[in-house]
Structure formats: structure tokens, C-alpha cells
Write a structure and sequence with these properties.
The structure holds two protein chains of two kinds.
Chain A lengths: L13 H10 L10 E5 L6 H14 L4 E6 L6 H15 L7 H6 L4 H18 L8 E6 L10 H9 L1 H4 L6 E7 L14 E3 L5 H15 L6 H23 L3 H22 L9 H7 L1 H5 L20 H15 L5 H5 L3 H5 L1 H11 L15 E2 H15 L7 H13 L3 E3 L11 E4 L3 H11 L10
Parallel strand pairs in A: 1-4, 1-5, 2-3, 3-4
Antiparallel strand pairs in A: 6-8, 7-8
Helix pairs in contact in A: 3-5, 8-9, 9-10, 13-17, 13-19
Chain B lengths: L6 H15 L16 H17 L3 E6 L6 H15 L5 E6 L6 H20 L11 H13 L4 H6 L3 H4 L3 E6 L11 H11 L7 E7 L4 H4 L2 H6 L3 E4 L6 H12 L8 H19 L3 H12 L3 H13 L19 H7 L3 H17 L6 H26 L11 H14 L2 E2 L3 E3 L2 E3 L12 E2 L3 H7 L4 H7 L2
Parallel strand pairs in B: 1-4, 1-5, 2-3, 3-4
Antiparallel strand pairs in B: 6-9, 7-8
Helix pairs in contact in B: 1-14, 2-3, 4-5, 11-12, 11-14, 16-17, 16-18
Classes of the chains: A alpha/beta, B alpha/beta.
Subcellular location (chain B): Nucleus
Protein name (chain B): Origin recognition complex subunit 4
InterPro entries (chain B): AAA+_ATPase, AAA_16, ORC4, ORC4_C, P-loop_NTPase
Chain lengths: ~450, ~450
């Protein structure tokens, strides 16, 4: 049977399937040693490949294995996974398979281990060769930054040149964008995927929904109900979803019960009671909020009141030190009355002269400061606002060390902690600092220049 | 077409053509016809033949761009030799892609020698590979030098065994010039130069780097036989067409007499297609004047042949090669909110003449524009009647999710900082003020979406 005409069930992907059938078709002779599959996320790349190759595997034409590179992180793990999957696919009952795989410590030894596996297989089967093996390397560009996936791909594309024994392998690289791989000059056969259109997505999701939903409704009615539901939800959130099915499915799963439950309770659809539009109208406020789109992992208000007051002051001082330019320190924090008296005047003056487009420094990354400056600012703001005495310096430093291990204040250098040259940075953002200063009754806005 | 061919003949022809177009031709199992490289192939063949026949060591470099047939040419020569001198020499292949440094290369050489010994004598016990790379080097070199050959003597003490010539094929030779000492190349060239004692050694280096000879260290260079074979891409269109014809046609001699007529008909048809006005010709000409890359042509022609109607020889569809900027393509697949964030980030970069942007800044701009748009709309509506539009508000968290997706797509690129040569992400200050480079500019977006009204509006500064 010709795989091109047989039903490989992938909607709207016939062009890509045709290309696949040209490059990787065991009936037309040897398959391409490597292929590149490229397209934006959620365009059906992996799904199409899986369907196509699984079908060939069922027909006993190839062996097929899919590797999720994103979870492998390193090249070595990928190579090990390739070898392990190969041993499993060939159904070899090798005693020392683990030992053999562990011999591969990188690309340099990969070919050798592969050759050994081939050798053992051919001796086991009296010289017979196995079926062609296809490895799909999914998201191969998402390795750790220093793992260099381009080297991996280049090398694997040349596996067939290394030894005549290795000419039965096909590697398929599935990537979002191939320019990050630097393999343009290899001119691999490329299969480009494009995003689905919104109507195609609706069709695909409709099939999924009707397959999954056990319902008391007649199938045709249920289908139109589901279609209406999809139309209304996807159109509502289209500006957020774009064409990413991966984003849509969790949201739809969250909202589906709201729409289907009234129907299931009644057992039929009654216009004005439980049809899609009525339910939508009834839950409008719910849908206007971003309930379905966002998961609240942590509650919005951070329980910060458990930090002691003095610690909060340290953090505030660190924030000021990070976001105020040192040249204004005299104006802002001086204990001399006359220098300080016109603090607010200058502050407001500054504001009026600046154009509204000017970026506030609060939005940029924090500046580094020295420990001395932090302590000076801390003393200045603390003495002004609180009556009780500040901790002595030893306690302060231990408090700082605690904050540093909490990564609230970051040290920019390894080693020397209290030396004058060591720089620090505040690692807490504005909203948290604002909350702290409200809690301790400190008006932080007065101390920020912009 | 009056003569109707049996179905399987047509399929056989198709398979033959496809086999020639596959990238697998470089695996060196069968000879592949190459256009215009006969001279070079003969040179290599002669050199290797001398090594085998007269124990003459030589080294040579084959330099040429990717896809110019270096590997295939050497493979062809080796296949010829294998035919004439069966089992009379060893071939050892190392590739800079796999063995990226001297150490792993020398270990690979040792392992391949082990394989040859195994095939020769069925003996697994001897091994050239040692735990350390230095010892491995010693054990390999001692064999190549012929100063001592323990294994050979242990087995049968036969002198023939020691006379076995070894041919080294080093792919991506430039990888081994990065090392300051170039130990591997030094030793191999040295043995090749002075191989008179026992093993004749020939070294063939393949590389794409034109100036590789200058990269060789001076002592390495002096041991190199100075033979360089330079392959170039075809200069004339006619020449290029010949190469394509050579690739796409079949050799009538390979076929049974019953199919001979079919093969000839196919060949002549292809020749007319390449010569006259046709889709195929168009494709070839475009390729010639842009990239001049036969490999790209190969992968484009594979579907053409695979879908070809073999009775009339009318080809299937030809896939286009995508050489566009990938970032622009990704822009087209973004959702509305993501695109708005991109525009806002680009606006801020322009307005504040910065080169990096963070989420805080982009989000501020986003809020400003969307609220001003709602206000304008509302004032317009109010003049018409007492209607107030409550446009959807997008929370910061939602936009942060969009921002993160932009990073994932590679539109926002994290600047790489290196400390002592190690990439470090030295980052402080929470998710939202981490700085990124934006891979596109506002002008790009405006140009790409010039037919979308709201984008034009947002891009206007």
C-alpha cells in the first residue's frame, strides 16, 4: 500500500505529508539520512511526523523512535537515549547494554558504540540487516545554551559517511527556527510547516471535543453546540491565543464544564435557558476577567509582615541605593537641614522639567552599590523615621548575609564579602518595596529622584 | 507515448533516479557518477594506487565548498581500489564533526584499527586503545612506524601482515588545525612522508576552508606533501546544467536490455527539459544565480521525481527553499497581544535610543497606547451619544506570559555575557526588568503588516 494515498489522519497537512513521502519512503529506495522539519509552535509538526512514521512502523517498513530533546538537556543524554532506544527497537537482549551505552561519552565515541551495536546485531541474526531506523529529535534547538545543538545536528547528518554499517539511520530534526542551528550549508531536505488558520483550528478542536464528550444529546446537535462554544470562546480570546492550540486547550478545558453542565442537567438544549449564547451572557463577567487565561499559583499578596521591621528598612535602603544616582545622595539623605530642606522643591522641579516620555529608572535594572553606601543610607533613613536605635554593625552584617542568601540582595563578586570593592545589587522589585515602605510608614517616593 | 511499459520497470527507473538524488550517496557503498571531476578522481586514485603498490606514502588535501563532491570523489576512488586490490589495504575515516579534537581522533583511529584486526583475524583480545590518549598515540604510532608490531608477530609472524597499507581519510581537517601543536596532523603527515619501513600510509584531508594550508603549523606544513586538489563550483551555467543532468539522469548501462529504451527515453526527455523552457530549467537557473548549491537542488528535485508521472515524465511539485529571515516569519504567526508588545518594545527602543529593552518598559508603553486609544474612542462615542466603551483590560501577568513567549520564539534575545570564557547569566532584579535585545525593528513590523490598520497606527510614533 502506498502511504501517500492511505489515510494518515492529519488534517490540513497534505502538502507536508507529500513531502515526507518523497523524502522518507521506504518503497522509493533509501530514505534521506537527515531531514529538517521547521515551523512555528503548534503547527502540527510532531503530530504529523508521529502519525506518518507510526504508520510505516505498523506496516513493518521502518523502526521509529521519538526523542524529546527538551528534556534531555545535554548532547550526551540525547546520544545515550538514541543508543538505548535503538537497542530496544532492535529487541536485542544484550547483557551489557548499559555498559555499552556508558562507553559513549560524547560525539567522539558515539559512532563506535553504534558500530558495535550493529555488529552484535548482524552476528546475532547471521548477517541480516534490520529495518531502517528513524529517530525524530524533537525541539533539538532547545538544549542548554552551551551544548551547541548545531554541532550535534551536523554530526548526526553525517553519520552515514562514517561507516558502511551505519547507512540505515534517518535523523529528523524538529525545530521552531532553523537559523539558530547554522546548518544552512548542509542543504538538508526541509519540510516547512505553517500555522493553522483560525478556521482550521476550530475544525480540529471540534473533532477533539466531539470525540471526548460523552453526552446525552444527539450527535448532530452536540456538534453544533460544541461548534458554537468554540466560536464564541476563541473569538473572545483571539487576541491572546493567536493560532496557538497549546494555549487554547487548557482554557477550553476550564470553560467547557460551565457550558456543558447546564445542558447535561436538563438533558436537552432549551433556547434561552442553556444554549451557548445564554450561558455566555450569564457568565459574561467571569469571561471578562482573565480567570481562564491565567493560573494563580501564588496568591497576589505576598505575606511579608513576617519580616522584622529593621530588615525591611535594610531592603528599602538597598533599593534606594540601587535606584538613586549617587550624585543626589547629599540632597536626599543629608542630615544638614539646609541641604535637605529643599529636597522636595528640587524633587518637584525635576519632575516638571522632564518630559513625560522619560523612562523612570525604576524600570531599568538596579545599579550596583558598595556596602558603605548602603549603610550610610540606612542610617540616614532609619534615624529620621524611627526612635529605637538601629542594630549595631555586626548584627546588621549578619542580617545582610541572611538577605544575601535569600537572594534579596545580590553580591556581584565571589569571595570577599565585606571588602570595600565588593558591589551589591538590590534584587527586589518596586511593588514589594512599595509594600514594605507602606507597612513601616516610610514615604519612599520622597527619596526617589524621578 | 505509444509503448506502454510494465509498471515495475517504471518504478525501478524512479528508484534509480531517486537513489542518485539522495543525500545518502556519500556513504560510499556504490559508485556515484560525478560531473567534471574525472581528472581529480584519477589523481587521487593514482596516488592511492602508488601507496598500495609501491609503498609510497603521500598526503593530499581536497578543498572545496560543501556539496562539491569531495567525499563522493574519494569514495569513488576507494571503491575502484577495492575492486582492483580487494582486502589489500585498510581505510580509516575520522571526521572533525565527530572527533573534534586530537585526543578523541587518535582514540578513534585505534578503535578502527581494532575493527580491521578483528575482521582480519577474528581476534578481539588485542586492542590499540589505551586508557590515556598519549598511550593510545604511542601504540598506534609504533605500529605505523613499524618499529615494533607486537600483534602481528604474536599472531603469525607473517611479514605480509605488516605490509598492509593504511589510507586515512580525514573529513573536516580544519578542526585539527585549531590545536597549537597539531599533534595528530604532525604525526600522520610524518608517517606518510617517511613510511618506508612497514606500513605505507596515505593521508587524504577534506575540508571546506580554502586557507587551510596557511593554518598548518610550519613543521606540519613541511611534512605535508603539498598536493592540493581544489574543487570549485561550476562557473558557467552550461557546466552547471551538465552537473544537474548528470545527477538526474540514469546510466543506461545499469539497466536490463528490456529497459534500455525506457532509460534512454527518460534521459533524452530530461535533457530537453534542462535545455528548453521548463519548470526544471527555471529552477536550475534560479539556483545557479543565487546559491549555486547542488545539494539544495537535490532535495528540491526529490519530490519532483517522487511524484513524477513516469509514463509521460511530467514532474511533481517543487518545494521552495525558504531563505527568509525567520524572525519575520515568526512575526506573522504571533497573536495580537504579542505583536503589540513587540511594537511597544521597538517604540521604546527608538524613543529612548536604547539598545536593550525590558518588560517594564514595554508594558508601560503598551498601557499608555491602549489607554489613549480607549480614551479617543470613548470621546468619539460620547459626542455621538451617551455610550461608554469598556474595552478589555489586559493584566500585567497576562502580558508577562506573552513576553515570555516572545523570548521562547527567539524574537527577544538574551545578551550573552561571558566571564572567563564561560557564558553566565548574571541577572538580578526579578523577571520584569531583565534586559533583552529585540530582533526586529518597528519599521520591519510596519512594513510587514502595512495592510493591517491597527498595526500601522501602533507603529506611528
Amino acid at each position: 500500500m502506498d502511504p501517500t494515498t492511505s489515510p494518515v489522519d492529519c488534517r490540513f497537512r497534505s502538502y507536508q505529508l507529500d513531502l515526507l513521502a518523497a523524502y522518507a519512503n521506504p518503497e522509493l529506495g533509501p530514505m534521506a539520512p537527515s531531514m529538517l522539519v521547521e515551523g512555528p509552535s503548534s503547527s502540527g509538526k510532531t503530530y504529523t511526523l508521529r502519525r506518518y512514521f507510526e504508520r510505516l512502523q505498523r506496516n513493518k517498513q521502518i523502526l521509529f523512535s521519538e526523542i524529546q530533546c527538551e528534556y534531555c538537556l545535554t548532547r550526551k543524554t540525547i546520544l545515550h537515549t538514541i543508543l538505548r532506544n535503538l537497542i530496544n527497537l532492535l529487541d536485542m537482549n544484550v547483557q551489557q547494554s548499559a555498559e555499552m551505552i556508558s562507553k559513549c561519552d560524547g560525539l567522539g565515541t558515539f559512532v563506535e558504540v553504534l558500530k558495535q551495536i550493529e555488529h552484535i546485531y548482524t552476528t546475532m541474526c547471521d548477517g541480516a540487516r534490520h529495518l531502517p531506523v528513524v529517530f525524530v529529535l524533537d525541539r533539538v534547538e532547545r538544549l542548554l545554551p552551551n551544548e551547541n545543538s548545531s554541532e550535534l545536528c551536523t554530526a548526526l547528518s553525517r553519520a552515514h559517511e562514517q561507516s558502511p554499517a551505519l547507512n540505515l539511520f534517518t535523523f529528523v530534526y524538529v525545530v521552531n527556527r532553523s537559523d539558530s542551528l547554522n546548518i544552512q550549508t548542509l542543504a538538508l531536505p526541509t519540510i516547512a510547516f505553517t500555522s493553522y488558520s483560525i478556521n482550521q483550528i476550530k475544525d480540529i478542536l471540534l473533532d477533539r471535543l466531539t470525540e471526548s464528550g460523552p453526552s446525552s444529546l444527539p450527535p448532530l446537535q452536540f456538534r453544533s453546540f460544541a461548534r458554537q462554544f468554540l466560536d464564541i470562546i476563541l473569538d473572545t480570546y483571539t487576541s491572546y491565543f493567536g493560532t496557538d492550540i497549546g494555549l487554547m486547550i487548557p482554557v477550553l478545558a476550564k470553560l467547557w464544564p460551565i457550558f456543558i453542565n447546564p445542558v447535561n442537567e436538563l438533558g436537552r438544549i432549551q433556547n434561552g435557558t442553556n444554549d451557548v449564547l445564554t450561558t455566555f451572557q450569564r457568565n459574561k463577567s467571569l469571561l471578562q476577567s482573565e480567570l481562564a487565561l491565567l493560573d494563580d499559583l501564588a496568591s497576589a499578596d505576598i505575606p511579608s509582615s513576617d519580616l522584622p521591621k529593621k530588615t525591611k528598612y535594610i531592603l528599602i535602603a538597598a533599593y534606594l541605593a540601587s535606584y538613586d544616582d549617587p550624585k543626589y545622595d547629599l540632597i536626599l539623605f543629608s542630615k544638614q537641614r539646609e541641604a535637605r530642606s529643599n529636597r522636595k522643591v528640587r524633587h518637584s522641579k525635576k519632575k516638571s522639567t522632564k518630559s513625560s516620555d522619560q523612562l523612570s529608572s525604576r524600570m531599568l535594572s538596579p545599579q550596583a552599590f558598595t556596602l558603605e553606601r548602603l549603610l550610610a543610607i540606612l542610617h540616614a533613613i532609619y534615624d529620621e523615621n524611627c526612635d529605637e536605635p538601629l542594630l549595631n554593625d555586626v548584627e546588621l552584617l549578619s542580617e545582610l548575609a541572611t538577605l544575601s542568601t535569600l537572594k534579596s540582595i545580590m553580591k556581584l563578586k565571589l569571595g570577599d564579602t565585606i571588602g570595600g570593592g565588593t558591589k551589591w545589587k538590590c534584587n527586589v522589585n518596586w511593588s514589594v518595596i512599595k509594600k514594605f515602605s507602606d507597612e513601616v510608614g516610610f514615604e519612599i517616593e520622597n527619596f526617589l529622584i524621578d | 507515448m505509444t509503448v506502454s511499459e510494465p509498471e515495475q520497470n517504471l518504478e525501478l527507473l524512479r528508484q534509480r533516479v531517486l537513489a542518485n538524488l539522495s543525500n545518502r550517496t556519500s556513504s560510499g557503498l556504490v559508485k556515484v557518477r560525478l560531473n567534471n571531476l574525472e581528472m581529480e578522481q584519477v589523481q587521487i586514485y593514482k596516488m592511492l594506487e602508488n601507496t598500495i603498490k609501491f609503498n609510497e606514502g603521500k598526503s593530499c588535501l581536497v578543498i572545496g565548498p560543501r556539496g562539491s563532491g569531495k567525499t563522493t570523489m574519494v569514495n569513488n576512488a576507494l571503491l575502484d581500489l577495492q575492486e582492483r586490490f580487494p582486502n589489500m589495504f585498510y581505510v580509516i575515516r575520522i571526521s572533525g564533526f565527530y572527533q573534534s579534537d586530537d585526543k578523541s581522533a587518535i582514540k578513534e583511529i585505534a578503535r578502527q584499527l581494532d575493527w580491521h584486526l578483528l575482521r582480519h583475524s577474528g581476534n578481539w583480545s588485542v586492542s590499540f586503545e589505551r586508557f590515556s590518549a598519549n598511550d593510545t598515540m604511542n601504540s598506534v604510532m609504533s605500529v605505523l612506524d613499524g618499529s615494533q608490531l607486537m600483534e602481528g608477530k604474536d599472531q603469525n609472524g607473517d611479514d605480509d601482515e605488516m605490509q598492509m597499507p593504511i589510507i586515512f581519510v580525514i573529513d573536516e581537517l580544519d578542526k585539527y588545525t585549531n590545536d597549537a601543536k597539531q599533534t595528530l596532523l604532525y604525526n600522520l603527515f610524518d608517517v606518510a612522508q617517511s613510511s618506508s619501513n612497514s606500513h605505507a600510509v596515505a593521508v587524504i584531508g577534506l575540508t571546506t576552508v580554502t586557507g587551510v594550508r596557511e593554518q598548518l603549523e610550519k613543521r606540519v606544513k613541511s611534512r605535508f606533501s603539498q598536493k592540493v586538489i581544489q574543487l570549485t563550483k561550476p562557473r558557467q551555467l552550461a557546466e552547471f546544467c551538465d552537473s544537474v543532468y548528470c545527477m538526474i539522469s540514469v546510466d543506461p548501462d545499469d539497466f536490463e536490455p528490456s529497459m534500455l529504451e525506457l532509460a534512454q527515453r527518460y534521459n533524452s526527455h530530461m535533457k530537453t527539459l534542462l535545455g528548453g523552457a521548463s519548470e526544471l530549467r527555471k529552477l536550475v537557473v534560479r539556483n545557479f544565480y543565487t546559491v549555486k548549491d547542488l545539494n539544495i537542488l537535490k532535495s528540491q528535485l526529490t519530490p519532483y521525481i517522487a511524484k513524477m508521472d513516469m509514463t509521460t515524465f511530467s514532474g511533481g511539485p517543487i518545494p521552495l527553499v525558504n531563505t527568509n529571515n525567520r524572525s519575520f516569519q515568526i512575526l506573522a504567526s504571533l497573536s495580537e497581544l504579542e505583536l503589540k508588545l513587540v511594537i511597544c518594545a521597538g517604540r521604546q527602543l527608538l524613543k529612548n535610543s536604547m539598545d536593550q529593552v525590558n518588560f517594564n518598559i514595554a508594558y508601560e508603553e503598551f498601557e499608555r497606547i491602549s489607554s489613549s486609544q480607549t480614551n479617543t474612542l470613548n470621546s468619539q462615542l460620547q459626542t455621538m451619544g451617551r455610550v461608554k466603551l469598556d474595552s478589555a483590560h489586559h493584566s500585567r501577568d497576562l502580558m508577562l506570559a506573552c513576553w515570555e513567549r516572545l523570548i521562547y520564539y527567539g524574537l527577544l534575545v538574551e545578551p550573552i555575557r561571558q566571564i572567563n570564557g564561560i557564558n553566565s547569566s548574571f541577572y538580578t532584579g526579578g523577571e520584569s526588568n531583565k534586559m533583552f535585545h529585540l530582533d526586529v525593528t518597528v519599521e520591519d513590523v510596519a512594513r510587514l503588516f502595512r495592510h493591517t490598520d491597527w498595526v500601522t497606527k501602533w507603529c506611528r510614533i
